[in-house]
Amino acid sequence: MDDQPVLDPLGAVRAPGDPATDVYLTGTVFLDIIFTGLDSAPVRGTESWARGMGSSPGGVANMATALARLGLHTTLAAAFGDDMYGDYCWDCLATGEGIDLGPSRRVPGWHSPVTVSMAYEGERTMVSHGHRAPPEETVPACPPPARAAVASLGQRERASDEEPAPDPDREWIAQAAAAGTQVFADVGWDDTGRWDPADLDGLAHCAAFLPNAEEAMRYTRTATPAAAARRLAELVPLAVVTLGAEGAVAVDAGSGETAEVPALIVDALDPTGAGDVFVAGFVTGTLAGWPLADRLAFGSLCAALSVQEFGGSLSAPGWTEVAAWWTRAKAAAGTPPEALRRYAFLDALIPPAPRRWPLPRAVPTIGFRRV
Q1: What is the pLDDT of residue 308?
Q2: What span, in angstroms and rounded, lies between the C-alpha atoms of 110 and 53?
Q3: Fewer beta carbons within 10 angstroms: which end of the chain, N or C?
Q4: pTM, entire model
Q5: Rounded distance, CA 231 to CA 197, Å?
Q6: Model confidence at 42, in pLDDT bands (50, 70, 90)?
Q7: In contact, 371 and 14? CB cutoff 8 Å
Q8: CB-based contact 77:104 (threshold 8 Å)
Q9: Is the dihedral of CA 292, 295, 297, 300 positive or negative?
């Protein structure tokens, strides 16, 4: 990240004896191939040309990259194929982004899951293929010591054409929480349509839950995101419901505090991974001890910056992008005064003359050789 300033958002709270890992996560890494610049959805029997195209690690790699670019020491446990796609994803994450892949595994004879994503009209359409890694090649059951972990509840993330398996992560989530790790949970879309509240039993071990509005309302059988957030706050200390282009709302069950922050209005190129980037920004602010409204605002800012570039993981912003946006926002005559007030906390975070971070960012396509 040679265009990134050195900024440790947790510098003020670090102490001797702290875990080496700030955030631990596990899940499926996909190779994402993203087409952008489509004027409309592809039509059966025709050929569509896209004005833009790129490749990047996807799936859980979206959030891992977003966390690492914000300066958090990130450890990822995942299975990687021993094909060229797996080589590319491993190199992007370990060498390009500085993510610790110590608990990850290379699986002989297993091909990498692949997703093709087509972005148009502010939305995306995806086609994925893959098979589950052999059980003996899955990641270690016991997570390493960490300040925080990000976990997916509900049914297991689909990585094949097989039926999704029941949530396999409840045991490690409980182990991590018992060891003092703050667990931040999200949840995937329920293809079965049942939206069984039992899928959320793992919230008993979690510090925060961050579903999107549709997921939150379906699980809670409520009619509005705010009502869903209040209902979820009965199950978890902090409930955060993301509203996409409308921002986010949160309820702190312990203090009773509520907060709602609108999203920034931007021209979206590709929404892939925006939810993961929001979570990364929110986790960063939480570990740093920021006020709730500032955490929501920072997550929304990170998501807004990410959708202006293609891809999931490689569009995640670092502090250079955050600093550049804030500098432009303060200088622009048309910036709403409420936005300047909302993001004024950035002045205390961003150094006026940042030094450079020596790590390069990952190359956004397969096959290019490093110079």
Answers
A1: 78
A2: 26
A3: C
A4: 0.89
A5: 12
A6: confident
A7: no
A8: yes
A9: negative
